Amino acid sequence: MAASLRLNVRPFTSQHFQSKSLPKLASKVTTIRCSATPSVRRYTITLLPARHRPRSHLRRQERTPDHRLCRRYTRIEFGFKEMPMGGAALDLTGVPLPEETLLAAKQSDAILLGAIEGNCTCTYKWDTNEKHLKPETGLLQLREALKVFANLRPASVLPQLVDASTLKKEVAEGVDLMVVFILENQGVSAQTRMVRRLVSTLRSMLLMRLIELLALHLRTARKRRGKLCSVDKANVLEASMLWRKRVMAIASEYPDVELTHMYVDNAAMQLVRNPKQFDTIVTNNIFGDILSDEASMITGSIGMLPSASLGKEGPGLFEPIHGSAPDIAGQDKANPLATILSAAMLLKYGLGEEKAAQRIETAVLDTLNRGFRTRDIYSEGNKLVGCKEIGQEVVKSIDPKVPIAI
Question: Which ranges does the record mark as transmembrane (predicted)?
């Protein structure tokens, strides 16, 4: 069957914006068709690149599913729409989230984000901007509009990169954990939060998101090793006391998941002392952001960690957890693997195409097995390459001659 597959490039109907404010990025629509039977699964992916590093990352990722991967599967069709957001959008249109970008994102099946900082080198040129004109405001507005409430960040120490970890080999080897945290209602202004009559409404909104997050997280833990650690600061913070009560109440509906609790300061220490004790960690936004960055260095580099932001329905948002690294912009030194692995999460969690996701993950492992490394994960005895070359090697690792059943 695999031998009979052929690559057919045929356009299908896709939203195409003709906006004077977006003369460059909005006109780039790529459609890739691979088919051997009349029944085709069609997906539209919105790409949100910045400049320099994220843009090259997205180029590597875009070629991964639409080049050799596409030949491996029947009944799959991808349509890519590239739109500006964050710093790139500020440079082009003067706002961090243009209406055309938001509409394209809502109409797509999933969104892949490079980074928000845009065409920025060495200094953060938007530091003095008003809050509504900062790149990160575009991301917060997008999350709010898409109604995503849970951020999933897997952190695994790959056997090929155990020597790149900041921890001793015996401590780091075999680490495989997932940090999931709530994306709080960041779209509500500080002034609104201070209005007393809205306090109860905001509390209800956050509780609803917490309930949705925990249900998702418990299902995630069930699919992994069945262990869930809730991280809070319930010995000091009232919000954490409420958090722990809700966690215990909701977890009672999942008796097959082992629930434990840990204070955040202890969790930060245990992550470097004995990270293998963790399977799935659930926590709030601030704690989760910090702990997942800490976990990234256990894996060898922040350039290896993907993430997924998911809601109850609608398209998910997938992105590497790192920023744009302006200090190495345009130097071909960046590690694109976190973005490529974010594409795998997009296929798995966003589209339900687990076979395709596994193919990308396997290709990354094969590339590492063959000794290719970017500077951040390099160790003696391997081949030091740049962003472009390691992306090309991942594509080569997707071997069209090896049949995979769907």
Answer: none
pTM: 0.79
**Three-class secondary structure of residue 312 per DSSP:** coil
pLDDT digits (tens, 9 = 90+) for 370-404: 999 999 999 889 999 999 999 989 988 886 554 44
> Strand, coil or helix: what is 366?
helix
H-assigned helices in 314-382: 337-345, 354-369
pLDDT band, residue 37 (cuts 50/70/90):
very low
Report the run of H or E that residue 317 belongs to, with start and end: strand 316-320
pLDDT tens for each residue of 245-274? 888 887 787 787 788 999 999 999 999 999
Helices of type H across 21-174: 53-66, 68-71, 87-93, 99-107, 135-146, 169-172
Rounded Cα gap, residues 229 and 238, in angstroms: 19
* pLDDT score of 222: 64
Q: How many residues in the chain?
A: 406
Q: For residue 352, is it left (φ>0), alpha (ψ between -120 and 50) or beta?
A: left
Give the type of residue at 258.
E
Choose among 82, 75, 81, 77: nearest CA to 12.
Answer: 77
Sheet holding 258-263, edge to edge: 6-8, 29-35, 76-82, 41-48, 110-113, 316-320, 306-311, 148-156, 176-182, 280-283, 227-232, 258-263
Q: Residue 306 forms beta bridges with which residues?
A: 320
Q: What are phi and psi of 359, to 5 degrees?
A: -65, -40
Condensed to tens digits (0 to 9), the pLDDT of residues 124-170 reads 677 788 888 888 889 999 999 999 988 999 999 999 999 999 999 99
Tally of CA atoms within 13 A in the half-sphere of 257 that contains its CB: 28
**Helix ranges (DSSP H) in 232-379:** 238-251, 264-273, 285-299, 337-345, 354-369
- Domains of the chain by range and CATH? 162-187+199-300 (3.40.718.10)
Q: What is the DSSP letter of 346?
A: I
Torsion of Cα atoms, 201 then 202 then 205 then 206, to 10°: -150
Identify the top-confidence range among 24-33, 106-115, 219-228, 260-269: 260-269
- For residues 152 and 135, what is the distance between their CA atoms, to the nearest angstrom? 22
